[in-house]
Amino acid sequence: MRQPIRVFLLVEAAAFAAAALAHSGVLVNGYEHQQARIAESLTALVLLAGLALSWLHPAWTRQAAIAAQGFALLGTLVGLFTIALGVGPQTAPDVAYHLGVLAVLVWGLVAAARAPAGDARRHA
After folding, report:
1. Residue 70 resides in a domain
2. Is residue 120 assigned to a domain?
3. Mapping DSSP to helix (H, G, I), strand (E, B) and coil, where does residue 35 land?
4. For each of the chain's 124 residues, which pLDDT tens digit applies?
């Protein structure tokens, strides 16, 4: 059976890992930014920790997803704020990434919030 909350966590973690690799110069040159790489790597790890908790303690899936995605959402909003201030990377791909991941995080949070508490098998 598919686990929509776990899928959200996995896709989000992959998106943050890809962004970290882009900002480290591994995926593409010219977009290196150390602070962004660190923040995105940490966020990917937090999302993966939420995913791991959902497998180790299925009854915690909802709470782990809300906590991990909430952390990621806060970090994404900080990233958008730094873009707006001119502190962080301001390229079109950075802006598009932040807006896209923001939408997915909100969608994932809504799915997790609507899931029955303590039941990892049933999701909205």
Report:
1. yes
2. no
3. helix
4. 248 999 999 999 999 999 999 999 998 888 788 998 999 999 999 999 999 999 999 999 999 999 999 999 999 999 999 989 988 788 888 899 999 999 999 999 999 999 887 654 544 4
Residues in the chain: 124
Count other C-beta atoms under 10 Å from residue 87's C-beta: 11
- pTM, 2 dp: 0.89
Q: State the Cα–Cα distance between residues 117 and 124, nearest whole angstrom.
A: 11
- Rounded CA-CA distance 80/118 in Å is 33
Q: How far apart are the first and last CA of the chain?
A: 14
Torsion sign across C-alpha atoms 92, 24, 16, 74? negative
Structure tokens at 16: 């943050």
Kindly provide the b/e burial profile for residues 28-63, where b requires at least 16 CB atoms within 10 angstroms of the residue's own CB: eeebebeebbebbbebbebbbbbbebbeeebebbbb
Number of domains in the chain: 1
